[in-house]
């Protein structure tokens, strides 16, 4: 180790140079997992999973004591809600039968096919405060591919951006680098939902480029639109909480509260079908 | 113990420190957010280790701690490794001229390097995408992260100091590896 001390300057320069080199190489050849990343995954992911299990168990135990008072009310409310939902399901079954008959009649292909889904568990989230990405415990071994869509309880979570042999990385829709083409369910007004780091901290997103005359109001449900390249149409994204007119007076912007709570994400569903080829 | 064995012991223990910290950061620390801010313990550990062991070891430590983060969560590989190397190197500079027992040094260095680190990330992955409202980012992300890091720097410094003490006792106190 005397050797290191002797060539200190060369050593430090090479360390910095090496990281710059990695920087450039990985920026050019993006998301090609190397042998190192894959093999490290086999060490890190099981341990992470164990830690996640333990910490979510603890948080559930704490939650048990804080929530026990409100449980009775919630249970009652949920019973009522489930009765209503059963009625709704019965009605929708009829509608679906109608729909099948009519599509056969019109000879158009099914517009909302039942996607093949795969359950996955969240094993770790990005430690950085600048990004909102997380890892799931399914990778190339379950034939996950890049740009597959990830759903959570209630709606859209994001998409797969990197696949390794036993885990993959998910970019959430509230991350600063993410954008999704969305539309209002009620009126079909379109816009782009893009993440913003300021809103990401409170779990919100921003819907931009809505026409100034668009009929959109607070409480409207937002779904993925037909303009979206990666996401299939009709997945629930969230609800409008606030609308402001932009300075240019051509467009307006809405703040969206996603249907999914990104803070407490434990299990997700991956749609194992890629809807569009990668442009790059 | 022979020199190789001592070296191996230190490498194993410091590797474990990096590994365990990474696991904790990506799992457990999600539950101890203050506001929306997670603590950046990797940075605090890099600074503490560099103060205790000097610039070269600090740089190596910073490099690998950053590289692990990059491999699993980085958008590009090398950004956190680069920042870690620089911080580890410069925080190891006052190694010879300060007492290790002093707490003011780690606190000051953690504050300065946390601001540097967060600005580095902002510069490379946000400024280049046209997010130019720098003061806004400073008040909402960089400053809270720094404050959180400062709060954690004292207990973490104690911990790293203890680990380092044990290791140095196992090794020869008067013949340190990289000195």
Strand residues, percent of chain A: 25-35%
List how many beta strands of chain A DSSP finds: 12
- Please give the alpha-carbon distance between the first and last residues of chain A: 45 Å
What summary fits the major beta sheet of chain A? 6 strands, antiparallel, barrel
Low-confidence stretches of chain B: none
**Fraction of residues in H or I helices of chain B:** over 70%
Q: Using CB atoms under 8 Å apart, which protein chain pair has the greatest interface?
A: A-B, 49 and 58 residues
How would you sum up the major sheet of chain B? none
Helix/sheet category of chain A: alpha+beta
The H-and-E topology of chain A, N to C, reads as HHHEEEEEEEHEEEEE
Number of helices of chain B: 6
From the alpha-carbon coordinates, what is the Rg of chain B to the nearest angstrom? 16 Å
**Helix count of chain A, per DSSP?**
4
Give the integer mean of the pLDDT values of chain B: 87
Please mark out the parts of chain A with pLDDT under 50 across 5 or more consecutive residues, or reply none.
Answer: none
Oligomer state of the chains in this structure: heterodimer
Strand arrangement within the widest β-sheet of chain A reads 1-2-5-4-3-12
Structural class of chain B: mainly alpha
Could you tell me the mean pLDDT of chain A? 84
3D structure, described in words:
The complex is a heterodimer of chains A (280) and B (179). Chain A is α+β, with helices and mostly antiparallel strands and 280 residues long. Chain A is 36% helix and 27% strand. Chain A has a 6-stranded antiparallel barrel with strand order 1-2-5-4-3-12. A 6-stranded antiparallel β-barrel of chain A has the order 6-7-8-11-10-9. Chain B is globular, with a radius of gyration of 16 Å. Chain B has 6 helices and no strands. With 179 residues, chain B is mostly helical. Chains A and B meet through helix 2, helix 3, strand 1 and helix 4 of A and helix 1, helix 3, helix 4, helix 5 and helix 6 of B.
